[in-house]
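<goal> How does this chain fold?
<body> The protein record starts here
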Amino acid sequence: MNIENKGNSSTAHNGGYQGKVVLAYSGGLDTSIAIKWLKETYGLDVVAAIVDVGQPKKEYDVAVKKAKDLGALQTYNIDVKEEFVTEYVFSALKANAMYEGAYPLATAIARPLIAKKLVEVAEKEDAGYIAHGCTAKGNDQVRFEVSIAALSPTMEIIATAREWKISREDAIAYAKKHNIPIPITKKNPYSIDENLWGRSAECGVLEDPSLEPPDDVYEWTCSPLNAPDKPLYLDISFEKGIPKAVDGKHLDPVALVEKINKLGGEHGIGRIDHIESRLVGIKSHEIYEAPAAEILIKAHKDLENLTLTREQIHYKHLIEQKYAEMVYYGLWHDPLTDALNAFIDKTQESVTGHVSVKLFKGSAVVASRTSPYSLYDEGLATYEKGDTFDHDAAKGFIALWGLPVKVARMSSNKIFTFHKQQKILGETDDE
């Protein structure tokens, strides 16, 4: 939808827009000022939808109250934490999804679920518009809008920050002018996004990647320098690629992720400082905290090494990279993502067992692993007595394995010899 830019106008310009707009509301700077701006600029009644994917409870409660105070016609508080973990986070975990090998997709994996809930609210409220506060430079605008279009093709979308074209400083000034409480000041200008799978921070001093991130950026993790001097061992139980228990105690999915986040953060694990290649074509400097993601992905990958064949593992590495890109690019509803999930789920049939992870001063290291479906055979692997490997078979195996290389090299030598002879004959003729 092409919406005329109304600038900073405080006068309502209905322009044919009537009815309700469902706003993806978080309580942050962009969505807080968006409630007033949508009413002023488009004359729409704002329905604020707050989707709980694991934001801090205090901030969530404040956001709920603030939406009403700012003039939202209706506020929806939607708790989707369990659905988020079971249907989205654990799908990413089974894929060992790390965009560019660094980012565990915490924000990205939440967006298609939030979009799903926005569409459900819009249908219930008979709203003709869905609005979000994502900027034109970010990835989230793509994730929201592509997901909404897939779920509700006729829904019209208003991107408030993109249409408004307001700077961060002007947005803060606008909030102060209209007495809109925001969790951001010029001294603490970070843009924060949190859910159960991770916390991201950008803006402010982080926009200069030549500077070391200040300590106040981090909230989930202590500095590895200040972490306990004694390591902690976590025993994590998996069933078909999904974590089920910690130290022998079965936990529901949300509680399991929360527990590992807490323990990992206390040991300084999960800090990620990443120069990221955004979908829109620019580089950005991102700070992430994801203790549970780092620990669980390491444990899961190690268990796969024990239970999957070499060819499964090597091919899955290719799938994992593509899966991470699809999620990061907002293509959760693309048919290819469905196909990748089907392949990944098939590989997880044997990924069952226990992995012990040692947490110590910022590092998470796998200490041991066991599985009833282990492909590790000590008799074949050992160099001691009890070795069952057929050593006599090695010579024939090497001969057959290297045969294509040998034949190709012999052929290359023949071609080289032929060309050398032709060159000599040519030089002779010239004489």
